[in-house]
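Title: [Solved] Mycofactocin-coupled SDR family oxidoreductase 3D structure

Original question kept below for reference.
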Amino acid sequence: MGELDNTVAVITGAARGQGRSHAVALAEQGADIIAIDICADIDAIPYPLGSTADLEKTAQLVRDTGRKVVPVVADVRDLAALEAGVRGGIDELGDIDIVVANAGVVAIGDPQIRAEPVFTTIVDTNLTGVWHTLLATVPSIIRKGRGGSVVLVSSSQGLTGRGGDGSAAMFAYAASKHGVVGLMRSAANAYAPHKIRVNSVNPSGVATPMIINDFVINGMTANPNPAVSQMLLPDTPLVEAQDVTEAVLWLVSPRARYVTGISVPVDAGHLVM
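Solution (posted by the thread starter after getting help):
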């Protein structure tokens, strides 16, 4: 018996990294999974994104737990495609109980100041994409009629301006992740009458392909920004995806049944430096 038996969870950005970690952990606790990812690169984002092979690996890992999974290729920036994918998952698994809006991009190390495509892409993915995820999923939770839990994946950069370097990429990332916190707080109020809890997790840098790639590593090596990575706890340059997943698991579980409208930092002390 798991804490999430007989539930259906939607997870965006599920092909790899945090999304895969969240999907497998929720499945291990009994949830069936609608796993969504763009499975394509984006011109303005200077590192490879997840692939269809990555998404299928996530799906197989979920199947290995004994739970059902519906992999969906959809871009969270495209509301119509996202809604269609979610509908397909609901047709197969039933209405939704849990949402983890995890899809996001960054371009740490891109020094361009006036790179409007970079700024727009980051905001459209990280903020508009989260709003689209709410639009595509919450009506199903309401229709099911037994409440639910929504976790929006923000960042420690959604709670601080530390590390700003004037680049379009960092301005967009901080602004979008602050926006996710505002969206969470508003949604917590809006959906409370339906017994839907809404919270955010706010990790610092996480050891996933979004950070561990040649572009970001080379950019941070050439232009170090200690304020982005400095932690209070020693020997913790990056947190692990599993550590973020543990916070997500708590927030979506019955153990957090009266917890809503909060941001949970998983940052090894980044915010208090």
